[in-house]
Amino acid sequence: MSDSTTSETKEFSAAEIGALAHLYRGEVYRSTIWRTRLDNTTNWSVVSLGAAMSISYSSSDASPLPLLIVGVLIWLFLALEARRYRYFNVWRARARWLEKHMYTPMLNRENYNCRNWQEILANDYLKPEYHVGYFTAVGRRIRRSYLWILLIQTFAYLGKLFIHPFPVRELGLFIDRADVGPIPGEIILAGGVVYICTFGILASHVRHQDARNARARGGVNEMG
Fold it and tell me: Staple partner for 93: which of 160, 182, 220, 223, CB 3.0–4.6 Å?
């Protein structure tokens, strides 16, 4: 038997194509469900930030502290969303895999001979695992949604310090308004800079890492 014969991909029977169609529908359904769960945690972050802004801006004497405390909630929701994203990515990747390697050749009247895609998908079902790491998931969610939430939180906090109870005209007064109990304003503001920079650097690092991985694959069919 020649090498060309052994490398041929087995054609699917009608029953197998029907089973794969149902499998694809199931993966799309699961990815849709987990996509909804991602939206839920993002919505919780937005609502929490909105509530903190309402409290802090309710009067000129209201404390800006809620705008700091809500940052802890945003971190928590981001951690939950990154975990959910890793699940979502599994179902999304499988559905996309079927679209790319089964349905696309079918529509183009081509053979199913794209780099042993059936074996890769079968192994993913046999030994399921996450396709992306946790910090990669965090970086992707920051880049997609949370960076904007954090920027709004930052501007809201700085705006509160600048205008309430009266507009600031000196840097020293601005820093004094950032005091939280015995913690000096300098430490609070420096922590805020670290807070934002950590998010930004992680998102940027993951973005460049994803780009490098895509270039390294050079179009090779890999899941994730």
Answer: 223
